[in-house]
């Protein structure tokens, strides 16, 4: 039987078949992508470990954990003592307790990083290198307990950049860690060109660098004694340090020299979301800013950095999302800390997709 046009019944023009096939492919890809989104699981990039096996590894700088005569638990590094604080039998030391909390919050995978009290960037280079090497082995051992749930970051001795590069090679190539975390207590600016070999090594290994505030350099006391009361070193001190880190990285041209380097700053980059427009204005009249900031503006360059969303309150969260690139925001919880959230944010899934990109997991 033929149609009025003389074509066999059921005949379909090839162009319609091609369009139909293309439509089916599009639908399939969307369904496949949707299923991938649903099965990715939440990734948390901000969590710290404390290894009691490292006590006294840095010699007179500690770390030292104990209880003082008044019965207060303490943790000492160098000439700085934090109290009352005890890491024993907590998520900072016990992987089973950590897994229980991950399951409670609905977190599938977590990035584990060094204790920010023990970056030790201000002590002698040999001791720092020994400490970091021991730390990274313990980190790899902890990750190996549940490699399906844990991802580890390396500690690096920034006092000695060649040693830091060697340790990074070992941590990534031999131990299987997925990046590095450094503090803000380093002896030079993050923009200093002496760090360029390390930045180049990170790019060559294709791993990200995480920056987290430091309370001290591991040798002395708090650099500003005004922060020694009311936990101001954690609220104001950390925010100041991370804001300075963002400023030095961008204004000092780190991303001009290393455009493929991925840097993630903790706590939403400190106060940068609230100061970004002022920093942008001042950068316009500063002849010493980086070429990227001079040509594009501070606000534009700010979107090249990554930030974790571990900020407190809706106002801070909205400010961060306003100034940062949406594809460069990742979830952070500081699991076990005083500021651990009770629930995940509504955009946890999207943030986790971003984390897959940052950590090269996709």
Shape: globular
Name of the CATH superfamily of the largest domain: Metal-dependent hydrolases
**From the helix content, strand content and strand pairing, which structural class follows?**
alpha/beta
Top-tier CATH class of the largest domain: Alpha Beta
Task: Characterize the biggest β-sheet.
Answer: 5 strands, parallel
Strand percent estimate? 5-15%
Known CATH architecture of the largest domain: Alpha-Beta Barrel
By DSSP, the count of extended strands is 11
Continuous helix count: 12
Give me the side-by-side strand order of the main sheet: 7-8-9-10-11
The CATH topology assignment of the largest domain is TIM Barrel
Helix content: 40-55%
What is the radius of gyration?
Answer: 24 Å
- Give the tally of structural domains: 2
Explain what this protein looks like in three dimensions:
There is one protein chain. This protein is α/β, with parallel strands linked by helices and 362 residues long. The chain is 42% helix and 10% strand. It has helices at residues 14-39, 95-105, 125-145, 161-174, 196-205, 232-251, 254-257, 272-284, 291-296, 298-302, 314-323, 348-358; strands spanning 43-44, 64-67, 73-77, 80-82, 109-112, 150-152, 180-182, 209-211, 263-265, 306-308, 329-330. It has a 5-stranded parallel sheet with strand order 7-8-9-10-11. Helix 8 (272-284) packs parallel to helix 11 (314-323). The chain is globular.
């Amino acid at each position: 039987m033929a149609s009025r046009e003389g074509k066999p019944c059921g005949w379909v023009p090839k162009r319609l078949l091609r369009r139909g096939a293309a439509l089916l492919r599009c639908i399939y890809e969307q369904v496949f992508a949707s299923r991938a989104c649903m099965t990715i699981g939440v990734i948390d990039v901000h969590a710290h470990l404390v290894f009691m096996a490292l006590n006294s590894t840095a010699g007179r700088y500690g770390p030292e954990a104990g209880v003082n005569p008044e019965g207060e638990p303490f943790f000492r590094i160098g000439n700085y003592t934090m109290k009352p604080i005890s890491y024993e039998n907590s998520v900072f030391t016990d992987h089973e307790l950590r897994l229980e909390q991950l399951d409670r919050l609905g977190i599938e995978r977590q990035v584990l990083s060094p204790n920010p009290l023990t970056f030790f960037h201000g002590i002698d280079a040999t001791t720092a290198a020994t400490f970091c090497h021991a730390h990274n082995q313990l980190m790899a051992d902890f990750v190996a307990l549940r490699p399906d749930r844990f991802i580890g970051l390396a500690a690096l001795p920034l006092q000695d950049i060649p040693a830091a590069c060697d340790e990074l090679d070992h941590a990534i190539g031999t131990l299987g860690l997925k990046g590095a975390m450094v503090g803000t207590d380093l002896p030079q600016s993050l923009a200093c060109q002496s760090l360029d070999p390390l930045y180049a090594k990170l790019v060559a290994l294709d791993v990200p660098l995480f920056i987290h505030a430091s309370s001290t350099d591991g040798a002395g006391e708090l650099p500003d004694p005004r922060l020694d009361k009311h936990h101001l070193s954690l609220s104001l001190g950390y925010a100041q340090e991370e804001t300075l880190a963002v400023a030095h990285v961008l204004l000092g041209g780190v991303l001009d020299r290393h455009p493929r380097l991925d840097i993630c700053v903790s706590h939403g980059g400190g106060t940068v979301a609230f100061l970004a427009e002022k920093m942008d204005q001042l950068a316009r009249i500063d002849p010493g800013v980086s070429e990227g900031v001079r040509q594009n503006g501070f606000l534009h360059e700010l979107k090249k950095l990554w930030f974790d969303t571990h900020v407190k309150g809706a106002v801070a969260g909205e400010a961060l999302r306003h100034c940062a690139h949406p594809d460069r925001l990742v979830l952070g919880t500081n699991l076990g800390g005083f500021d651990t959230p009770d629930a995940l944010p509504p955009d946890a899934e999207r943030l986790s997709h971003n984390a897959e990109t940052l950590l090269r997991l996709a």
